[in-house]
Amino acid sequence: MARPSPGCGSPTSSRARCCTPRFSPLGRWNSVPATGTQDQLRAAFARWGLPRRVRVDNGAPWGSTGELPTELALWLIGLGVGVIWNPARCPQANGVVERSQGTAKRWAEPETCCDEAELRQRLEDQDHIQRALYPRSKGQSRMEAFPGLKHSGQVYRAEEEESRWDLTPVLGHLADYVLVRRVDTSGTVSVYNKSRYVGKNLCGRDIYISLDPLAVEWVYAGPDGVCYRRQKAEELTAERVRGLDVSHHRQRERKVRQNRLSGLSAEPIVA
Fold it and tell me: Residues 133, 249: one domain?
């Protein structure tokens, strides 16, 4: 099956480069914020239903240098969606998606689009062709061969998310992590990009940090298991996880953006 060639406004055009070079998809979308990804996932879930699990890579907004899952992953877990992280630098572990995205890019030819609206329409058209029209096996399209792809069977409505979202599996998931941190000269360690005081008497020592899911507290202990300190994990609430507001780094990002919009000077964001 030959892919369609809508061109740039002319029905007879074969996508000649008639547009000015002002539109650059790569320059504009080289980094999508977590909130933007969340919005797109909500739209996808409303259309196709909630999946049982998703496979993600280790780049933004899924990967984290702080060892703990990012807010976006925690949000999915609270929806009852399992998250599977690919091994670092192993795109072949998600080969089906990588090939599908490559095909969509070749067919849609984003470099010839006049604007964002045209690119979105092309991607929608090519996605429909790949899923519902292109013969995949024995003359059947992927949708015909796997009719269950039309909907997962788990209905999702954004207006019902607050009532069905559950913090309990999020806390249970985080309880499986044990972090190793070296206490700095100020007696603090970092968890979710926030400095937390554990005591100057522990300066230079390695401590082990875990979450008590029942008390919702960070537990700081030594190698022998002796608890040095406990602190309330105030960032781990349903409201903050759903709002992607767990990491202290994200709070600084918002403050910097607000200051820029109001014309105030702001500190550079430091990872």
Answer: no
